[in-house]
Amino acid sequence: MSKPKGFEKPTGFRDYTPHVVTKLRTIERNVLECMERWGYRQIITPTIEYYDTVGVASSTSDRKLFKLLNSRGTTLVLRSDLTAPIARVVSSLLKDEELPLRLSYHANVFRSIEEEAGREAEFFQTGVELVGDDSPEADAEVVALAIASLQAAGVSSFKIAMGHMGFLNGLLEEVIPGQTVQQEQLKEGLLGRDYVGYRQSIEALNLEPKLKEQLEAILRLRGGKEVCTHATELSSSAEAAQSIAHLCAVFEVLEAYGVSEHVLIDLTMIGDFSYYTGMTFEGYAAELGSPVCSGGRYDNLLQQFGRSLPATGFALKTNRIIDGVHGITIEEKKPVRIQYTSECRAEALNEAARLRSIGQNVVTFLLPEDGAETSTTNVGALTGNKSMQAEQVITFGSEKGGKR
Amino acid sequence: MSKPKGFEKPTGFRDYTPHVVTKLRTIERNVLECMERWGYRQIITPTIEYYDTVGVASSTSDRKLFKLLNSRGTTLVLRSDLTAPIARVVSSLLKDEELPLRLSYHANVFRSIEEEAGREAEFFQTGVELVGDDSPEADAEVVALAIASLQAAGVSSFKIAMGHMGFLNGLLEEVIPGQTVQQEQLKEGLLGRDYVGYRQSIEALNLEPKLKEQLEAILRLRGGKEVCTHATELSSSAEAAQSIAHLCAVFEVLEAYGVSEHVLIDLTMIGDFSYYTGMTFEGYAAELGSPVCSGGRYDNLLQQFGRSLPATGFALKTNRIIDGVHGITIEEKKPVRIQYTSECRAEALNEAARLRSIGQNVVTFLLPEDGAETSTTNVGALTGNKSMQAEQVITFGSEKGGKR
């Protein structure tokens, strides 16, 4: 174990240079403003939570949680998502607010990584939670808002894949009742989009061909609204039927929103959060293989914080949008450079203040005195006006000390 | 040790409700925009750093650092300020950028607290670093920008107290040369503004009355520009003289900025960061006893990251401004409430989209079907239009199912 070098930072952690920050901040502002238009109000929760409350309630596996101990020996975690902390706040600080609650956030979250190349241990999410409404209308609202948010973030070409946990649960319980290990194995295959592995798992089951075919048929349940009809025909489970009816109702509301062209029904899709109970969805940008947003309904999470309420929501994977999507073009305003001799200082600084007050970015610089020693750093600064650091240069007094 | 209850969060950590977030975000945006006008570009650094690099370089005492171990057993810390991380970035990622570098940030920082009432373990700072310029002009720029930033944050009535580490060091070394323990004791008294303790420490010294009087006289070195003259008379140390000359030059530049009315010279003031080497300052709002901003010059910090460069900067204590200063009035836009029957859904959602596109906040709500069961949460939502949740209500279709 070697000591880190002076300028090193831990693996998976990242510095954002000004150009990238400008892009991140633009996306953050546009998306939060969009969410505000839909009546969502921002909240901020702590970076650190108790392991026994929010840590356990989060869907992040234990080994991926960043843990630390406080002075009393209690285990704390760095938040791994915002859904569990917001569930905590809804159950405490906001318990007297009227329902439904519409809340938004932009925050950094933490997942311990095993030093995989390019994986980030800290990254940003921008999302919403809609609490206290179990209707298809509420699910459709968050999907429609996810679409509006992706557009506000500059993602122009994308698809939303929408599924339902209940359909798969119902169908599996119908075909291989009680076989939880096998059910989990099949779900794992779908979660990882490993369809070869999924088929192999089916083959390994001791089932009559008709039932195997029923499980295989799930893989074809991807497409438009017609998928709902096919799905209904595939299963006689009540849970599956209710789920499909709900999903179909959500799709109809999305048609009313005028955004169904962006939405595919995909019953092979399982949200990667263990707390999802109903509709789940993921957004895919044309440029990227991994999702740029994900969301779903979680009707059992809040009761873990003592308040039983249905809820649905989503989060943009903001870092993937910054890094992988070419949507937003950032124009950085180059500052005006005002340079001056000490005799003209007040005049020059006054002009700088005037330009700033009308929205111009300005840097100021005292010219070296005639014949005076100039330090290396000041010479460095002086050569700056040839380069990208400044565009327009305004000089007060003579550079060669003419006024003196 | 009892387990935390379901909805508890660790001591010293805070949830920000929507109203407070609006205030925080307004201050953040106004201040960062102000800094951008002055040519400062935002950077973001990780929440977690190596203890051996940034942790040690920060001015936070060891016991106040939040520490954790990574999977390799290396000690990590949650950042306790942004100055040390930015010094790391300037020495690595930004090492080829032209000088001077002007960088800004808004970030949360962490200090472990011993559960004192009302102390926060995580709080926000909004600040700048100006790197690569050791002139009085640079120090004056950050003081003037601190003043502009406080004004942008809505702090209308405040004073900046400005001192210099070098004056005190020079004077102490002149009067009690080499007596580092006693020097530290006297500095502690000044840092804590414990003037009684400071006088007692002087009394305890084995010194002739004239020298004791010289140390006591420091307490009177607070006021306007005339303090520089009194200070020059008090010490014959070269370091003290140079420091006063620098401070006087900074004050003159602040006069040229037209902001010296806000500035007091206070040579009893010691910045509470151990890395300060030159000019230091603190800002006091009329409403609050504790400073709302602090800053100063730190010419030795960057060499710890392998790049020897002078630097100066400051940070607003953003939480104190949110909580303690009555500057910014936040007007929260109440959303329009559009309610509709299922038959009029498309029409209603279309109107919602139109209102949102012209900057109106809108929430939408499906009216319960005539005679249908309404769930508790939907009834809760319905009663919402009588209260603060919505102001204007637009109904599409009849609440009693008239259109059906």
Short descriptors:
homodimer; 404 residues; alpha/beta; BirA Bifunctional Protein, domain 2; Rossmann fold; 2 domains; 37% helix
How would you describe the overall organization of this protein?
Two copies of one chain form a homodimer. Helices cover 37% and strands 19% of the residues of chain A. Chain A is of the alpha/beta class and 404 residues long. Chain A folds into two domains: 18-324, BirA Bifunctional Protein, domain 2 (2-Layer Sandwich), CATH 3.30.930; 336-396, Rossmann fold (3-Layer(aba) Sandwich), CATH 3.40.50. Chain A has a nine-stranded mixed β-sheet with strand order 1-5-6-12-11-10-7-9-8, sandwiched between helices. Chain A has a three-stranded antiparallel β-sheet with strand order 2-4-3. In chain A, helix 1 runs antiparallel to helix 4, helix 4 (136-152) packs across helix 10 and helix 6 (180-191) runs antiparallel to helix 7 (195-204). Chains A and B meet through helix 1, strand 1, strand 2, helix 2 and strand 5 of A and helix 1, strand 1, strand 2, helix 2 and strand 5 of B.
